Amino acid sequence: METKIVFYSVMGRSRMVADGVVVALDSPLFGLTDRYSALPAGWKRAARRAVRGFDLGVLTTPNVSFDRGDRLVLVFPYWNGAIVPAVSGFVRSIGLAGVTVFLVMTRRLSGGDELISQLEDDIVRQGGTIGGVFSLRTLWRAQQRLRSLGSRVGQHIAREAQGAPFSLQELLEDAIEDEVETRARYLQLIEMTPNRRLKTTFSLLATGEAAHAQLLQQLYRAYTGVVYEPHREAIASLKSGQVLDYSALLQGLGVVVEAERKAIMGYRAIAERYSSQPDVVRQTLVLARSDVQHYRDMRGLYNKLSRHHSTR
Fold first, then answer.
1. Domain map (residue ranges) of the chain
2. HSE-up (13 A, CA, CB side) for residue 185
3. Which CATH architecture has domain 168-311?
C-alpha cells in the first residue's frame, strides 16, 4: 500500500502546497502537465486558458498506476470557473478501484464546491473512495506559508486510517448477491412450513428482497452502465428431512435474521462512506430502513417460535 501525490499547477501555488504534502508523507510526487502549465509560472492568462482548453494533460512520469489499497493525494487549483480539463482527464483515465483519494484544492478566497462535487463523482465512478477534501486559501500567502499548509494537510492524511480496498461498484455487487441469496432462503422457508400465514409472510418478504435487488441494480447501472449478473453459487436445495421440519424451520429463520442484520450494517456503511453521492446515500438508507423492519419481524417470529418449540 502506497501513497502517491499528483499535482497540477500553472501559477505555482498548487506545486508549493504539493511540496509540503510530500514532506509530511514522504511519498512520490507526480506532476500533471499540459501546454499551459509548461508556460512560465505566474503567467495569469495561462490559468484562464487552461480552464477553457480541452488538453487532457500528461504525467511527467509515465505509467503511474495505483494498486488496491493505495492512496492518491490530488492537488489542483480553482480559478472561479469549471474544472481544469487536465485534472478531470487524469481522473477519468486512471484506474482507481480500491484507491482512497484525498482532494486538495487551492483557491484565492472561496468557491469551488461544484468543482469538488464533479471530481468526487468522477472518482467514485472510477472505483475510488473519497478519503477527505481540503480547501486552502492562497491569496496573499507566501511560498513558505503554502508549503506549511501542505505539510499540515499531509500530517492530517497520515493520521487517517487506511480505507477498505473496495469500490462502490464492488460493494453494490456484494449487496445484490446477498439480496438474491436472502430471497432464495425466504422461498425455502415457504416449503418448510404448512402454516398459511407463515407462507404468506415469507412470500411477501421474498418479494421485498427482489425489489431491493432491483433498486441496487438501478444504482449499479447508474455507475457502471451495465446490469450486474449475480454468479454466486446457489444455496443448497432442501433435503427431504428438512421439509415441514420445525427445527429446520427455526434454523432457517436464524439464518435470515442474521442476513437482514448484516444487510442493515452494510447499507449504513455504504451511505457513510459515499456521503458525497446523494443518490447512493438516499437509496442505501431506504434499503436499510426496509431491512430494519424485516429484521425486527423475523427476530420476533424466531423468538416466538423458539419459545413454542421449547415448550413442546
1. 3-161, 168-311
2. 22
3. Up-down Bundle (1.20)
Q: How far apart are CA 138 and CA 46, in angstroms?
A: 18
Q: Which CATH architecture has domain 3-161?
A: 3-Layer(aba) Sandwich (3.40)
Q: What's the pTM?
A: 0.81
Q: How does pLDDT run across 228-243, given as a tens digit for each residue? A: 999 888 887 777 666 6
DSSP state letters, 41-74: TT-HHHHHHHHH-----EESSTT----TT-EEEE
- Tens of pLDDT, residue by residue over 49-102, are 655 555 556 656 666 888 898 999 999 988 776 667 778 888 888 889 999 999
DSSP 121-176: HHHHHTT-EEEEEEEEE-TT--HHHHHHHHHHHHHHHHHSPPPPS--HHHHHHHHH
Helices (H) and strands (E) in the chain, counts: 9, 6
Mean pLDDT over 277-297 rounds to 95
